[in-house]
Amino acid sequence: MQVHGWAEYVITRSYRCHIQLTHMPHSLGKPAGGLPMSSAQLAKPSSKQRVRTLWISDVHLGTRDCQAEHLSAFLKRYQADKVYLVGDIIDGWKMRSGMYWPQAHTNVIRRLLTMSKRGTEVIYITGNHDEFLRRYSKLILGNIQLLDEAVHVTADGRRLLVIHGDQFDVITRYHRWLAFLGDSAYEFTLTLNRWLNHWRAKYGYGYWSLSAYLKHKVKTAVSFISDFEEAIAHECVKRGLDGVVCGHIHHAEIRRVGEVEYLNCGDWVESCSALIEHLDGTIELFRLADAHLQQKAAAQQEPVVESVV
């Protein structure tokens, strides 16, 4: 089945997901490598944490570098009123060259559909890697809506543009062959990153992102990120909005760009990061690695109770 036909099949019949998703293609083998800790190592809370909104982007389901198991574990921890999927959730570019879809990727889709069935509003914002879904924009299936962009109003009244961000990437918009070339180079970096962290974990070292390091150190990459942030912030000013939530560049961040609040979800390929709006409207940047370190530190501080005979 072609990628577009497969996507159409899933979208138009998602209300019967528990039957249809069992027929999605699977690949043999172990899940892709990545962060050294397993999802099970993040202890499950006694009850789900109630939050107002979750934003996740750049999951890239259908690729070997997608950290699907970690994302499923993250979603299980929260009861959210609304979930925004801020683009590049499914990687249509990669799936053109062959289907890779292990059970963990199906589990992410099932988790999101289960959340929607239980009352969570799920808004799927399309990105450039899942641009084939843009022809379904404004489609509504129960609590699931497909859009190219949205405006979110926080609990404290801030109006935020929610958009993937590829619209503000000059290379993606006007030089698609360069975008594909850059994507291939990035994929190669991720492959090196996977092998590097395999050996680091083997010798007791923590996770380290090669591509994130290169983004911070290479002048052109730093300049690209800065230009992207400035362009998207300028659009918010034009529209009279207070801020923007986006993805696309795989660089999680919360900061002010001029008058605009800039919030980037990051990704679930390297950083495993997301944005969380709490019930009072405050927005937190979640990083899986930070959560793991905090849990480890808390465990070390727990008092040792000696048994008395």
TrEMBL record:
UniProt GO MF annotations: metal ion binding; UDP-2,3-diacylglucosamine hydrolase activity
Alphabetical list of Gene3D superfamilies matching this protein: 3.60.21.10
Domain annotation Calcineurin-like phosphoesterase: ranges: 52-251
Name of the protein this chain belongs to: Ser/Thr protein phosphatase protein
Pfam family, one: Metallophos
Keywords carried by this UniProt record: Cell inner membrane, Cell membrane, Manganese, Membrane, Metal-binding
Cellular component GO terms, alphabetical: membrane
